[in-house]
From TrEMBL:
Gene Ontology terms describing biological process: phosphatidylinositol dephosphorylation
Protein name stated in the entry: Type I inositol polyphosphate 5-phosphatase 8
Species, as recorded: Cucurbita maxima
Family listed: Belongs to the inositol polyphosphate 5-phosphatase family.
Organism lineage: Eukaryota, Viridiplantae, Streptophyta, Embryophyta, Tracheophyta
Cell wall biogenesis/degradation in keyword set: no
Gene responsible for this protein: LOC111481387
Superkingdom of source: Eukaryota
Any GO molecular function: inositol-polyphosphate 5-phosphatase activity
Keywords, comma-separated and alphabetical: Hydrolase
Pfam family, one: Exo_endo_phos2
Length: 484
């Protein structure tokens, strides 16, 4: 058996390397997901949205939201008010250990509907990983760790005891978050105030995940929302060695939820703090926007049914996260003095990303929250000390990089509001994780408008859709906890 497995590996390795070197579009490859119908999305007859729930087995929308904890915007009966937590973390080429806790990163004082988690350097960026076959082992470990945190530890659940631990000061924006929460919800007790009944523990499904060398992106959706996710697509763009290999670049996931299109872009841009390196990072952003494409098996449309988004900017709501690698345009002596005084605002005046954005050279029209936390890079691993400020650090082991806000989260789109933007304090790598909570307004009525055009285009879909919908509803109730 061992020899057979070895032969299979040897035969598949050149194929994987060839795909990498020829830069085949990633959205034509399979990707890990809990989505049971993923293998059926192969033909035009599926219309890229085969997870259609026929009305005769559907459940009334308001009753689902009331029993499952989704918030309904009182000003609009057809609008859902969702919560999305976005996190980015450069883990420095280290696989997670068993004792690593994601509680600081994933915990929230409010129930979360969608988790978008991006990693950089999940494998060391050496020649073997950049030029050779993909090492998917660390990605599987991260998925397992996240799955355990969300579905076993109950971090995303309103009834979890973890919810009761408030984040440490200073995080002034938390007051804004709590003020925005539904008056009928008590986050401290995990109870629904009008009926005084405990809410059930939330469960999460892996909508999609994708790795490109060290860049890894995964999207998790609360189980009852999960059956409304359609048009899952991925696209990867390499911007590393020779301008196209995957040690730098982007992994993007596109999906539609209740008729609203989302795009999540996880990036690791060109590194370096020499003069002019910021222009290379600007070029990376431009090329990623230009080359990212979400191909669909059927581009035809019928009636009012809209075409699925093809580019990043075609989507209704977009989040760009990752190690963007923008540094500080200031002298070392001045930087160190401002760091010792915790004068973040003065340092941010020299932040390359903000300078380039204000000049209109990158991310024009995108938003980023106010940064009220210390630079996230570069730390001595397992320490709270920056490498550049430590006199006894050894340059041979630790590159002496000036501290900077390399790890960022930006967004664009109507109906998105950032509730907080903070960093975690895990010492696992030389970067600190960054995460942000968003409030999302989603028009659930758009889902109903899609059904007539699908039925008109495919009159024979009903029977197959009903079988599939029953499978999805069963899955949503039982939650298969095994990773795909």
């Amino acid at each position: 058996m061992g020899m057979k497995r070895g032969k299979m590996f040897k035969s598949s390795w050149p194929r994987a390397v060839a795909r990498k070197w020829l830069n085949f579009p990633a959205d034509k490859q399979a990707f890990p997901s809990d989505f049971v119908a993923q293998e059926r999305r192969k033909s035009c007859s599926d219309l890229d949205s085969c997870a259609v729930v026929p009305e005769d087995i559907g459940v009334e929308r308001r009753s689902i939201e009331k029993t499952r904890g989704l918030r309904v915007n009182p000003s609009c009966s057809e609008s859902l008010d969702l919560r999305m937590l976005v996190g980015t973390w450069n883990v420095g080429g280290k696989a997670p250990n068993e004792g690593l806790s994601l509680r600081d990163w994933l915990n929230s004082p409010t129930p979360i509907d969608i988790y978008v988690l991006g990693f950089q350097e999940i494998v060391p960026l050496n020649a073997g990983n950049v030029l050779g076959a993909e090492d998917s082992g660390p990605a599987a470990q991260w998925l397992s760790l996240i799955h355990q945190a969300l579905n076993t530890d109950g971090i995303g659940s309103p009834t979890s005891n973890n919810q009761q631990q408030a984040p440490q000061k200073p995080r002034q924006s938390f007051s804004d978050l709590l003020a925005l929460e539904d008056d009928n919800w008590s986050g401290e007790t995990g109870m629904c105030t009008p009926c005084n009944k405990p809410m059930r523990r939330r469960q999460y499904c892996l909508a999609a995940s994708k790795q490109m060398v060290g860049i890894f992106l995964c999207v998790w959706v609360e189980a009852d929302l999960y059956k409304h996710v359609l048009n899952l697509k991925i696209s990867s763009v390499g911007r590393g060695v020779m301008g196209f290999l995957g040690n730098k670049g982007s992994v993007s996931i596109s999906m539609t939820l209740h008729g609203t299109s989302f795009c999540f872009v996880c990036t690791h841009l060109t590194s370096g703090e020499k003069e002019g390196d910021e222009l290379k990072r600007n070029s990376d952003v431009s090329e990623i926007l230009k080359k990212t494409r979400f191909s669909h098996s059927c581009r035809a449309t019928s009636g009012a049914h809209p075409l699925p988004p093809e580019t990043i900017l075609d989507h209704d709501k977009v989040v760009w996260l990752g190690d963007l690698n923008y540094r500080l345009s200031t002298g070392c002596g001045e930087t160190y003095e401002l760091l010792r005084n915790n004068d973040w605002q003065a340092l941010l005046e020299k932040d390359q990303l903000k300078l380039e954005q204000r000049a209109g050279r990158v991310f024009k029209g995108w938003e980023e929250g106010r940064i009220e936390f210390a630079p996230t890079y570069k730390y001595i691993t397992n320490s709270d000390h920056y490498v550049a400020l430590t006199s006894n650090s050894k340059p041979s082991k630790e590159k002496r990089r000036t501290p900077a806000w390399c790890d960022r989260i930006l967004w664009r789109g109507v109906g998105m509001k950032q509730l907080w933007y903070v960093r975690g304090e895990c010492r696992f790598s030389d970067h600190r994780p960054v995460y942000s909570l968003f409030s999302l307004q989603v028009d659930s009525a758009a889902t109903n408008s899609i059904k007539p055009s699908i039925n008109a285009a495919l009159p024979s879909l009903c029977a197959a859709a009903k079988i599939q919908a029953e499978e999805l509803l069963l899955k949503a109730e039982t939650i298969d906890t095994s990773l795909q």
